[in-house]
## 1
Amino acid sequence: MSIASLIVLIVAIHSVHSVHLLVGSHSMSLSHVKLTFDVAEDMQNTGRHIVTEIRWPVMKVIADYPARKGFRSLLLNKTYEHASKLDFLPAMIDDSGWKKDDGIVDILKMFKGAWPLLSLPCEEALEAEKVARNLTSEGYNLGILDPFSGLCGAVAMRSGKFPFVVLSPLVEPFTLGLVAGFPVPYSYVMSLTVAKADHEMNLIDRSANVLGHSFFRFFMWLQSYLLAKQFADKSDAAELFKGFGNTMVFTNSHRFLEWPIPTSLARIDIGHRDTHGEDKIPKEILDFIEDEQSLGTIIFSMSTYTSSGKMPEEVMSMFAAAFAKFSEYRFIWRIHDFPSELKAKNIHTVKWIPQTELLNHKKTVLLITHGGQNSVLEAINAGVPMIGIPMMGDQHPNIERVRTRILGLRLTKSELTEENIAKKIQELLQNQIYTTNAKKLASMLSTERSFLSHTNSTWWLEYTLRHVNQLGWIIPKGADQGYLVHFGFDILGVFFLCSLLLS
């Protein structure tokens, strides 16, 4: 047998025994993409799985982000071509995000022209010959999908007639409940629109919370309805655009951090996984933070909002002046463009940081963050308290959880002044309750990791692959109930009607 024939035979045998995964990531958030790729890469590293990533980028940072080594790529370009013509997208990551708290008017403006961003991936998946052929002929065994990238990921996987699971990089209870089939009591389970602990909500808060969850329910229904109407010529439109349906949900969270809420066996939290990275701390940063005269290191990283290098100079001035008051501490500030006149001896600015490694460094005492789920979990795993400055979306409830668990403090954009920044830092450094609580929670997570090392995301995904046709029993009956039945309005209606007849 020739060498060429042997290679073909080996590849053929490997293909027979390999499972092919299609991974759909987020179109706008780099942290979402990184988590999705991390989970898929863990699967690939077992040597038993082939990974293809399907991507329909909206932001340039997503379009330019490289696939992991060994990944195959299936790129949908129409969405990015349309997104490049929208003026509101760059504004989401420039200095306008710092100027005021999010309002409903700003949110509505942001949705202007956004519908094609939700529908174009469906069009390309169903009608572009190359993409459609790939979905139906590659023999995918399982899809892994970020639910916050829109419905078209589910549509693409349904068109290929293979099952999929959901990987949620953040905690949005309504979406998780909708997919995993557990009831979400609108009155007290915190929504993204009302970032407030359940025990602190008053009547107005709970009313707004109900409206917030109802909006998400309406939006999910509207997206399915409009897509089904747009592609009504498809014979299987009703099946393709029925929503996400019910499946396994892997959540980048942990029950020790969240408040107790209803759940189901279909939800698997993977926030307990070991987050220690493999990046080395650059020598220039190590030399700076390991100064013998330093009492500790404070990390300042606002992720997307400083990656663009467009933080307003007045905001930078506030932070720089506040940091200068703590000359005995060293500040690592992740930012692209930093005015030379604001530099100080205790401030070291860099364009990128190995955040996980820095958080686990013995000198690190505090993280100042935007409150993204990954940053919060990394800090918790490292036992480092936080000051959270939420900018949008799930960052508000994330920091609310941190505040109520006494793991850190919250600082809103409207409260940003030199004095308030310095006051929050001083409180965190002087009151050891925050550090103590953070280290206790880190110890709890570390202990659980040792018990659950065999049940990580890879273990559960392979379990799903083995039993994908027998998992229906884990979805509660309530998942199929409509709005009126779910809240018992039909029963109340019968009682009300009977009382009228009897009176």
## 2
Amino acid sequence: MLTPTSPSTCSLLGDKMLSGLLLALSVVGSFAGADARKMMTKSEMHARQVEAAKRFERTPRAAPAAPPVKNITFTNPKASQFYVDGTTIPEVNFDVGPSWAGLLPISADPNETRELFFWFFPPGPEGSLDDLIFWTNGGPGCSSLEGFLQENGPFQWGVGTAQPIVNVNSWTNLSSVLWVEQPVGTGFSQGKPNITNEVDLAAQLVGFMEQFLEVFSELKGKKLYITGESYAGAYVPYIADFIYENPLAANLNLSLQGIWIGDPVLGWDVVQAQIPVVDFVHKYENVFAFNETFMAELDAIAVECNYAGYYEKFATYPPAGLLPLPGKSTEADRGCDVWDTVFDAALIKNPAFNIYRIFDTFPILWDVLGFPGSFPQTQLSPLYFDRADVKAAIHAPANVDWTECSNINVFPRGDASLPSSFTVLPNVIEKSVRSVIAHGLADFILIAEGARIVIQNMTWNGLQGFQTPIANDSFIVDGVGSLGTAHTERGLTFLEVELSGHMIPQYSPLAAFQSMAFLMGFRPTP
């Protein structure tokens, strides 16, 4: 037995100490090497960020030409009263080119008091002169000027941005674009709302379009694409169906080709919000940061309300039959409103929680339109489109207190129409060359898995739902790689966009632009 003081013990201790010292020096050296590799200067980090950002820079569809905008000459003298000088738009320190904006009535009746506000831009240097994109936001009652300024317009003033910038992914680089604040009661639009359903809305919008084309008659005969997001999942299919099927639209003289709807209302609330919400929270557990006890409570509600396992059981490829409701209500049975339970809990953990993009945290970035997240918040008054100089520049009525989403109920007695997936959407898909439904995967107010369920319950072109599964990593964005999923069957393309919130042209503009180019036949794949 060796004692601590024996020569052999000292020798052994010495060997161990030497080995330990060498090991420590080796470890220190390894960490020092790691630090040397990881530490970089701010300029080096910035250079890497710049290089990464280039991956999202779109390659022009055609070589830029002069002038920067393909101007259209309108022969009707009335068009001149709507002309907007692209060098005089407040806060925009560059020329955005010619455009036309103002109010036009929804009918030819000389006593018509209802008018919709529009802003029309001709195509940019890459854009087609043969096409016309119509854009509407949702709500109901939310302004399409939000889409114009923060999503797909020729200049962009996004949340948290110091000043307007050129939007390289503007849809004017595809064709002419017409943004319309509709229905009556939205934004600058004038008159007393009286619609009761989506057919009423479509009739009024088509009436407006007829008046618009009388003034801007050079746009007659163009190929038309009707687009929008959110509650426009109701608007767009009903408008398209009205154009396809109603004799009142015969005088429109536009060739409707297809539709694009982003994060749309397509079916029942229980399907698009309640059924998928607990799975959604599990997918993003580190974002919601709920404790295990609360997660167990959510799981128990999902089981009790027949939400748990619903997608796996019923949304099969192909579906086995019509998909059932999980309970008796199209919204949520008593005790089963788990979406609101999650939302309330999310606000406790993160008061800046944004239902339109779940990744947002403090600080809440400022928004010139006063709606930076889940709730309206005016951080600078007046809002951009409520400024007198802006109203004057775009021929908007000076006496309107503009807000992004109207305080007026645009459906005074509610919207009596059924969701479009049960009524007109299948017919629109069948009549269109292409139709695109796109969904941001970071959207909480409407959840992508719910849209999948709606599609699997819908029958178009002779079959119910998609017949083959949606492949992972199948949406390839040029220069970036996989950014979600893409699936096409029988004229319908469904896209899911990773990292994007509710407003895809805002949160993932290149993906939105690419999908629109596909809709318009400018590329073979989304």
